[in-house]
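Q: Can I borrow your eye for a moment on a structure tokenisation matter? Would you mind producing a protein record, from residues through to fold? Write it directly below this note and I will take it from there.
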Amino acid sequence: MPCADITDVTSYFQLERCSKWAADYTSIALQFPDQLLPYSTKVAEYLSGGERSVHVLADTNYGACCVDEVAAQRLSTTAIIHFGHSCGSRVLSLPTLFIFGYQPLDVEEVLSGFKSCYPSSAGVTVVLDTPYYHCRAELQNKLRTICPGAVVQTRSGEQNTPNSHSVVEVSCEDEVFYIGGESLALTNCILTNGSRKVHSYNPETGETRLESRNVNKLLIKRFANIEKIRDCEIVGILVGTLGIKHFREVIERVKGVCRAAEKKYYVVSIGKPNPAKLGNFLEIGVFVMVGCAENSLLDCSEFYQPIVTPYELEIACIDRPWEVDYISDCSALIADPNCPLPPPSQDNEEDAKDRELSEKFHSLDLAVNFLNDRTWSGLQQRLGEDEPAVLREGQRGIAGFYENEEVCDSRMTGTGETK
């Protein structure tokens, strides 16, 4: 969203609502995505006052859609206001207010597109992208007249506060009508509703189309990575969040899955992943992203190794069945009664020590074999193999003019002539 689109900062960021909500806290953090950061000073000035301190969070360690609670705690803040698109992941502990922003939406055009997709009354769940959530009440009232079975999905505007409420989930019998443009949120909606027809309406283009036909293409790409997981020996657990509830439990479950499949694993925390960062870990065959539902579905075409989700890891390693509805929320895998982890072996103390020692030697063998297969293994000292070089005096002076140079810049002589 271009910054120039915002003309009324007070209305777009709902500053009156923010001020009332922040009245109960003495120190708050304001988290902005990159495209909204130029307005952070105006928002901070509006919310500052009295004994309340205001801090601006920018350049988050992970995805901007997740609340950066770790950065907020470093500043000793007691609450967070998150601006812009949100994935809706559960926050650990700090009270959080979500301000989704405002994008204009022609409700009549939406209803026209809705009727073209669902000419008869049917069970439909309408999912609004965050910039259009302000139209939820109006859209729900008008949908009742043409489709009584339609329900607009609610989204919690607060977390860890008395006013928090749960999100209405999509019913098994419902079809899905998504309102929003191309985004990771739409991709996640398509995958997690694989057993349902998903139509989308793009407010920017006014186009309504069936998205379910793209599910097979997306799943084929994801399914190809599962075979790579089975073939690899070393797995990298990529930490993609530090602020989502239960992320530690998810990491422990991923470790358990790797142990059950007898695969070596390393936990890697490097912030936002990119090919250059992950390229330093060439011995790792596949990375498992532990993050929010949207950031876990990375396009890894530019990466050297595939990046998969914990759900795909479990399909490859512990024979979890492939569900029609993809599970992108990794927290849903914790203590899943339908797919428990194999129980740990009941070894005595001596056998446990032998097994641990064996695993260490196995990991060492993997690392040594990988280094031996490399054609280049770094700079070598080659002590005693080469004749020492003859020392000679180097140049003296500054970069603009060295003493042994015959020609110098006229600015050094001050005469406009050369020597």
